[in-house]
Specification:
- This protein is an alpha/beta fold.
- 32% of the residues lie in helices and 26% in strands.
- The protein is built from 3 helices and 4 strands; from the N terminus they run ββαβαβα.
- Strands 1, 2, 3 and 4 form a 4-stranded parallel sheet that branches.
- Helix 1 links the parallel strand 2 and strand 3.
- The longest helix is centred in the N-terminal third of the chain and has 14 residues.
Length: 99
């Protein structure tokens, strides 16, 4: 739970999540940063791929001064909240199935 961060007051915060699946971990990270480092003037969320569910969650839980940049949107999440096919599939193919 240690956060090492300078003040975010009045600055632009860039949160990067390669795969925005549900949005909950990104929201928890954002809240922890605000608690420890202050409220930024603007927040930008950048994701390579996002699920529709993750985008909906982010739009509901982040303030109006938040922009969301996303390379592509995928409609499907598995019951384990994985984006299908997702970027992790490359790792699965290289290193075998998840256990």
């Amino acid at each position: 739970e240690y956060i090492s961060c300078g003040s975010l007051e009045g600055k632009t915060l860039l949160l990067v999540d390669p795969m925005l699946a549900t949005g909950t971990s990104l929201d928890l990270t954002h809240k922890a940063l605000i608690e420890k480092a202050g409220r930024p003037r603007k927040t930008i969320i950048a994701a390579v791929i996002a699920s529709e569910e993750g985008l909906d969650y982010a739009q509901k839980h982040f303030s109006q001064d938040t922009d969301i940049w996303c390379g592509t949107v995928d409609a499907e999440l598995t019951v384990k909240s994985y984006i299908v096919p997702g970027l992790g599939d490359a790792g699965d193919l290289a290193y075998g199935d998840k256990m």
